[in-house]
Amino acid sequence: MTNFSDLRLSESSMQALTDVGYDKPSPIQEQAIPPMLDGLDVIGQAQTGSGKTAAFGLPIVEYVDPSVAEVQALVLTPTRELCIQVTQALRTYGSRKGIDVVAVFGGAPIRSQQAQLRGGGQVVVGTVGRVLDLIQRASLILNSCRFVVLDEADEMLDLGFLEDVERILALTPNSRQTSLFSATMPPPIRALADRYLYDPVTVSVQSATMTVDSVEQFQLPVEAKDKADKLVDVLRAERPDQAIVFVRTKIATDRLYKKLRDRGLNVKALHGDMSQGARDGVMLGFKGGRVPILVATDVAARGLDISTVTHVVNFDVPRSPDVYVHRIGRTGRVGRAGRAITFVESRQRRELVAIEEHIGITVSPWAQGARVAPAPVEERPRRHSKPSVSTNGAQADEAAFARLMAGAGSADGLRVADLVGAVTREAGVDGEAVRDVLVLERFAFLSVPEADAARIADAVSGAQVSGVTLKLERARA
Ligand code: AMP
Asked: Against a cut of 0.70, is the pTM above it?
């Protein structure tokens, strides 16, 4: 077991770690920090939640000189959200040493970012499009840039940013130290690493998210008031051997348990307000197979590791992707295909999108009898978990895409990445929802799922991208 003190970090970094309360390095930190401190290029296969930000952030902080007002490290991120998150983390890690971290991202005024860059920050964290823009305006000078990090490279690929990433890499010094972090390693990312990393050390952490592959995952849009009825429908349709229904709070767990019981289902509840004896009784009944349906909170169900669980129902969208992975990891064990169904109220859509992004799949709509063929992790950067059979046709139609037009084009400085970035950001949709982007001199076109077209057009219209106010409307055939 390694400690941070074994990793040859300076006193100021150790103090910063004490400030944030990290006791021990996470596996990715343990593996990536030493080679990075040795000056080697690193490929890190890890995702959000693994502690990858500190894995590259701490070595950067070690080597950056706060007395030199030049950009010494550049971290490229696919999205504004990640950019902000990474910036905050690096500011924390570098605070004791007095390192200045500047965030640059699209959708915010470029002037204030230019002013911040003139202020002489040592570390720049930026989204791909905006970084390129600032380089082209000579506001971002990378001559002294010693470190380059590509964070969530597979996400950059999905969003269509890879060409721009290459252009940026080509503009940084050859002597730079490069690291690339990615949850998956599809061929274009490997090719990029081959071209731009020198003899890299590869480190990877097998995270819990890898284990959800054997689970068929579905989502079901619901309204708060008829969730209990929907649940009864789903359970009757799915006929699970054993199911765990996860609920966020103890009170809601009890309420749902009573409703199901009153509808004649053989169900038990498990939550922290029950006596230890009562909990043990329920656990034993469930483990012994006598109780087919368990309604539980996350905390109460911790440690339930049951190979006979065929179904997990998320009665509420889990609070975080990690909780989602942890919950659905209860099913589909040892070669059995489990099924996970997540109820989604409209206000929880964004939370589900975050989960989909985290685990790298699109969760299919639930329909009675719907099937999903799980695919191996590395086959594709992003897997659609699409139903191949269904009985009531409630799922998305692959072919239904709408063509939208933007009243701005390359002459206005609009680029493919800007447009895709704006749509994913403003409408909260996955990069894969955007297809066939075409930027002409004065206009641009893109295709989005028909079902979301009106909402996307609405959400994106009015957004500022590279100084252009976007207006999206349906293109005439
Ligand atoms: P990341 O994967 O970099 O987004 O980090 C995920 C979360 O883990 C963040 O909230 C970090 O602050 C936290 N974290 C990172 N490294 C450690 C550590 N060694 N100990 C405890 N928490 C950590």
From this structure: no
